[in-house]
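Collaborator request, handled under Task 6.
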Amino acid sequence: MTQARGSWLKTVVLLQKAYGAYRGRLLETIRSEVSEMVAELDVQITSVGTDKKDHIIVRIDGNDEEFVGNALSKEYGRSLQSDNLVPNKPYPGQLIDVGKVGYGLYSDVGVTDSKRMDALIPLHQLRNQLDFHGPLRTISEAFVLVDYLPVEVNITGIDLYNERVEAEFNQSTLTRISDWMQDDHERLLVFGANQNQIESSLKKTNHREDIYEIEKLSKFEFSLRCKRSTRASGILAAIGPRLRGVPMHLFIPKELEAKQNAKT
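Structure tokens returned to the collaborator:
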């Protein structure tokens, strides 16, 4: 029996977020990609938006909606229910609310049935993993641990009754931090823009050739790895005005090393 179109819609909440000054453009990017993905299938995209935590929500209708829902989750990451969390398993996410508390960092791993169940990386865990024993603010500044930074965490403890999840950085995230610190290329982190916007801004300011590589951290999160002769601060000054409202952060190994060596 064929399901009557419109009788009910499948809602897919993705791990990927759309946020910031260009939220609308990012959602259009997703809509365009999804439309291309489903062009030959019996499904319609009825809406693309976000929830209160900026996770992208796609509503679809049609006989192939289950297949499309799974494909979307594979492409953009899947949201979770709290009772599906598994200890000692790695979960991708993004840092949120950095600096709002002093006892640790939170990673949004996509739990959608509770507003409070972001994964807490306690301060003592950060100190142990990063071998840096300053206060949280100093640690965050010394390693550029900022809002929207994509990270992978291992869940170390789950308390569903009190809606608490604790975690630690997965080795993949620690390795990335270490690799960036040992690299002699400066980086500019750009969050909340698509790659076309970044490419266009670099070309229009005649700085595309100053970028050795545009590293994709997640769908709308990038690391611009500068050539050795290029300062990331110069790239920020050039493209910042063209991408107003887009979070950008300098990752300059020599400056960060100096901060790390000045432990308190």
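The cover message to the collaborator said: "The CA atoms of residues 53 and 130 lie 28 Å apart. Residues 23-37 form the longest helix (15 residues). Please let us know whether this matches your experimental observations."
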